């Protein structure tokens, strides 16, 4: 029996999201456009996802654009692929060049403790060659997969307006 003074321990659990294209290795860096409550991330997709999210022309450089609505936190920075093992979620299954959701997220719980009530917040992590993107938002939507980064970036800017 637990006493009322004991606080249950938050246990982060990392789950791969296969409905989102994997980031490409050795490619251009991701691009973020953000407003007060929306974050849009554009990044080059892995060649292994070309067939699944294509078709693309041979001279295309496919990028996807992902929208995170009701965002209350986002960051893009270290660690990258080389030192991903230092990320606090590495021991929970965080992998390189992948898209993840953190179930039972301690970060989302911490943020919800200091923000106004709103939609349920979810914690997303996308790993790239040189950086890791994290976002706490109500959901995610793959807005599109485009043949070039310029098109994906234009789409990202149009979603912010």
From TrEMBL:
<protein>
    <submittedName>
        <fullName>Uncharacterized protein</fullName>
    </submittedName>
</protein>
């Amino acid at each position: 029996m637990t006493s009322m003074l004991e606080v249950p321990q938050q246990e982060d659990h990392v789950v791969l999201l296969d409905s989102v294209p994997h980031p490409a290795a050795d490619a251009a860096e991701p691009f973020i456009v953000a407003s007060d409550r929306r974050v849009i991330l554009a990044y080059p997709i892995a060649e292994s996802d070309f067939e699944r999210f294509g078709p693309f022309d041979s001279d295309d450089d496919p990028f996807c654009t992902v929208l995170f609505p009701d965002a209350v936190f986002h960051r893009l920075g270290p660690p990258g692929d080389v030192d991903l093992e230092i990320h606090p979620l590495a021991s929970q299954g965080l992998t390189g060049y992948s898209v993840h959701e953190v179930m039972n997220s301690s970060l989302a719980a911490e943020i919800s403790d200091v923000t106004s009530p709103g939609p349920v917040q979810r914690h997303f992590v996308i790993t790239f060659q040189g950086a890791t993107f994290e976002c706490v938002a109500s959901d995610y939507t793959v807005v599109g997969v485009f043949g070039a980064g310029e098109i994906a970036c234009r789409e990202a800017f149009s979603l912010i307006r």
